[in-house]
Amino acid sequence: MKKIKFKRKIKALSLFANVGIAETYLSELGINVVVANELLDERCKFYKHLYPKVNMIKGDITDPEIFEEVIEEADKNNIEMIIATPPCQGMSCAGRKDPKDPRNFLVYYAIETIKKLKPRFVILENVPMQQHTQILYNDNYMFIPEYIEKELGDLYRLNTTRIVNAMNYGVAQSRERCVYLLSRKNTNIKWEFPKPLSK
Q1: How far apart are CA 80 and CA 191, in angstroms?
Q2: Distance of CA 11 to the CA centre of its chain
């Protein structure tokens, strides 16, 4: 598989960062995560151990002060990419599959961050069940994909193939995920997944 690297280093913000597994190889591709946000203290400490140069903002992104701190730090660092992996426990087959689980609505904060910062590129990752999960939006329930497209479709191109399995890309595990790859329209880039590796 052809490895694509950015011609110059670009800076990224990681939301719902956990311990940073999602960004393990990004630096090799020319992507430097410079700001991250995570709720739990033990995860933040482990993240800082792995990525000591990243400005980890510990706290609840639904708290207006934490949200504004994330926005200010990302803006100050001129981030060009956002990586967001909102919690999936309300949608996951291993979870409760509760459409009213408040964690399902955390995608709202990722979308609002994108709208405020308008980065060139965005990765939104979750379980496949996200495609069939509704959240409350303007007093009506709406499927999450419809919500994402409604909020971001004017500014971003969205990839067409969104359900991917990690085993098709060199990972020794069958792990399906719903992944949105967004490129700002003025970049003139259509961002899609490469073809699966041949067996």
Answers
A1: 15
A2: 14
Q: What is the pLDDT of residues 103-151, one digit of tens each?
A: 668 899 999 999 999 999 999 998 788 777 887 788 888 888 999 999 9
Instruction: Compute the distance between CA of residue 163 and CA of residue 178 in angstroms, rounded to an integer.
Output: 5
Identity of the residue numbered 171: V
SS3 of 141-159: the string is EEEHHHHHHHHHCCCEEEC
Number of CB atoms found within 10 A of residue 113's CB: 22
15 close to 110: Cβ distance less than 8 angstroms: yes
55: tokens are 């400005």
- Cα distances (Å, whole numbers) of residue 38 to 120, 151, 179, 188: 23, 24, 20, 32
Q: Are 71 and 113 in contact (CB under 8 A)?
A: yes
User: Active-site residue among 44, 88, 93, 178?
Assistant: 88
Letter string b/e over residues 131-168, b meaning 16 or more CB atoms within 10 A of that residue's CB: eebebebeeeeeebbebbeebbeeebbbeeebebeeeb
Instruction: Identify the H or E element spanning 184.
Output: strand 176-184
Is 88 tagged catalytic?
Answer: yes
